[in-house]
Amino acid sequence: MFDFGSFELSGMQWAMLALTAFLVGVSKTGIPGVGVIAVPLIAIVWADAKESVGLLLPLLIFADLFAAGYYRRKALWGHIIRLLPWAMAGIVAGFFIMRQIDGKHLKPVIGGIVLIMLALKYWQSAGGKQAKDGDINLPTHWAFAAFMGLVAGVITMMANAAGPVMIIYLLAMRLPKTEFVGTAA
């Protein structure tokens, strides 16, 4: 898929790739919203947006392995298992959507997804400060998990940017701090 024989990047592109890797690492250590910025950075460096999504995936998986290994004792697996079938269905839906979009047209879609995820992150932050007791009033019904799983699956397939969706889902579950971080990892 990648032609490494003609793999030439400028110094600025290498710097942006290094920043992408740094942001992914920071997002896995406790500042989860930062990771969404890595998505457009790598899409800027790589000409084909589909390839940029594929290139970012191993980096995210590698960072996830470290985060999950470190926080594995704090994870509440029931919340993940509840979300998993819906997220898998979203990944399949995202696959079929991706087949209809070429790499050139995927960049604006990725940009839109990232802007929506940043808006969700802002809404989550602002909502938490405005609520009387600091909690955001989000549903905990199974349909909420289904919706969030589907959305997370589609977004992760198309842009590797489902972090804010997962944060909102986990906030709705009202997990204690260490279990929240462990489950998010």
Quick recap:
By secondary structure, the protein is mostly helical. Helix content is 74%, strand content 0%.
From the alpha carbons, calculate the radius of gyration and give it in angstroms: 17 Å
Total beta strand runs: 0
pLDDT < 50 runs, ≥5 residues: 1-5, 129-136
Write down the domain tally. 1
Proportion of strand residues: under 5%
What would you note in describing this structure?
There is one protein chain. The model is unreliable at 1-5 and 129-136 (pLDDT under 50). The chain starts with 10 loop residues before the first helix and ends with a helix. Helices cover 74% and strands 0% of the residues. It has 185 residues and is an all-alpha fold. The chain has helices at 11-28, 38-45, 49-71, 77-99, 103-130, 142-159, 163-172, 177-184.
List the helices and strands and how they pair.
Elements lengths: L10 H18 L9 H8 L3 H23 L5 H23 L3 H28 L11 H18 L3 H10 L4 H8 L1
Helix pairs in contact: 1-2, 1-3, 2-3, 2-5, 4-6, 5-7, 6-7
Give keywords:
8 helices, globular, disordered N terminus
